[in-house]
Design goal:
Shape: globular
Order of helices and strands: EHEHEHEEEEHH
CATH architecture: Alpha-Beta Complex
CATH topology: Maf protein
Pfam family, one: Ham1p_like
CATH class: Alpha Beta
Radius of gyration: 17 Å
Subunit structure: Homodimer.
Mean pLDDT: 92
Keywords: Hydrolase, Magnesium, Metal-binding, Nucleotide metabolism, Nucleotide-binding
Strand order of the largest sheet: 2-1-3-4-5-6-7
Cofactor: Mg(2+)
Largest sheet: 7 strands, mixed
Strand content: 15-25%
Enzyme class: hydrolase
Length: 198
């Protein structure tokens, strides 16, 4: 079991940093890679896990500390798993609204029964940049893609992601509820267990 007093998060996102600190509790101090550098690694992996490992190694190399990275996205059955690792840039960098519009267009003729999808989160924790045995945790959140956006909470594909167990879109969930159900929450629970924090 790995014991940590601090780690660096391979993200410049202040919200993600705060969320992670809350999930890990006070036992581990979480620092942003932004304290060490603004240079982001090229995400050349072919999977969520590969990209998470690339980002974690990069952050560990920059900081000299154990590093945690996540790579997340949406995988839609009818699109062969797309947008997948390209979720954030699906519409060429046009932002959430453009990504959602492109997804709806791609699924325009697809019936409800074939609109299955899942949010995926891969977490990678490395002790140091050359760690031969990263801790990998994956979380999946099953749902389906709606025909039109619903709700105003969340971000990304949340307005199009139907959550069957709650009978609403992800963007209609309160943030605390989403943080209990989401792919990231599921991956983080595994990580807490692996670190002996759960």
């Amino acid at each position: 079991m790995m014991t940590l007093s601090q780690l660096v998060l391979a993200s410049h996102n202040a919200g993600k940093l705060k969320e992670l600190q809350a999930l890990l509790g006070n036992a581990v101090r979480v620092r942003s890679v932004g304290e060490f550098s603004d240079v982001a690694p090229e995400e050349t992996g072919l999977s969520f896990v590969e990209n998470a490992i690339l980002k974690a190694r990069h952050a560990a190399r920059l900081s000299g500390l154990p590093a945690l990275a996540d790579d997340s996205g949406l995988a839609v059955d009818a699109l062969g798993g797309a947008p997948g690792i390209h979720s954030a840039r699906y519409a060429g960098g046009g932002g959430d609204a453009a990504n959602n519009a492109k997804l709806l267009e791609a699924l325009r003729e697809v019936p409800d029964a074939e609109r299955g999808a899942r949010f995926v989160c891969a977490l990678a924790l490395v002790r140091h940049a050359e760690d031969p045995l990263p801790i990998i945790c994956e979380g999946l959140w099953q749902g389906r893609i709606l025909h039109a956006p619903r709700g105003t909470e969340g971000f990304g594909y949340d307005p199009l992601f139907w959550v069957p167990e709650r009978g609403c879109s992800s963007a209609e969930l309160a943030s605390a509820e989403k943080n209990r159900l989401s792919h990231r929450a599921r991956a983080m629970l595994q990580l807490r267990q692996r670190l002996g924090l759960a």
